[in-house]
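Me: I'm a chemist; would you kindly supply a protein sequence with its structure tokens?

Assistant:
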Amino acid sequence: MTALFALATSLLWGLADFGGGLLTRRTPALTVVVVSQAIATVVLGVIVLFTGAWSEAGDQLWFAAAAGVVGPIALICFYKALALGPMGVVSPLGTVGVAVPVGVGLFLGERPGLMQVAGIAVAVLGVVLAGGPQLRGAPVQRQAILLTLIAAFGFGTVFALIAEASTTTTGLFLALFVQRVVNVGAGGLALYASSRRGVATLPEGGFPWRSLPALGFVGLADVAANGTYVVAAHHGPVTVAAVLASLYPVVTALAARGILRERLRAVQAAGAGLALVGTLLLATG
């Protein structure tokens, strides 16, 4: 049961990342984030009402609100990085955000084991190699790497905050709902500010109504992934669930290779692989 739901989490997160990155190539990243998260907010609101999760409300929801502020920044950076590509490098690098919860644990007095130390070292090496030999001469490549690292730090911060925002399954649904309400609110304000400055917030043809199903899929896949991860963690060891759920970059990379026919330099592929290995070492440590 744990393996099944954790692998489902990887599949859903991987496809959501691929879809979000693909949509950002045609629609501004901020618009993709706001619309997809708005759809997710509606669905989560229904779940909260039917599960009675409002009874879990408390001061801990401030952590969820903080995650809602950080989340849109991370998603926008990540989708922009995916749009710049290649996805096969960007997606695995995004998983190094696991180092943030590890850092929080260190601050609280925990000490990493040998496996975690090795994971941090391997992940950093992966970040360096994933830039490839073009890193100096290609500003787009540098931008993609920088955006990915900012996104990874943001994701890690969100994970740490959400962990403090709930202790039960229904509480998690409420925390995720609050997070996404703030996501949409913050993103909506940023979208309005961008339009006031004359920045394009829509494609030339107007709102991409044809992309609405894909936008809905991205938002709902992210919500569903959170749900399947909770089920996996509650039915077996959290370590097993975390390791299997962290394989989602493989899904994104395979989708990019199979659908977009992306080709990576050997050193980039090696760096992306090392970043993923480092993440797995961190999770298992």
The mean pLDDT is 78. The longest helix spans residues 169-196. Residues 2 and 232 are 4 Å apart (CA to CA).
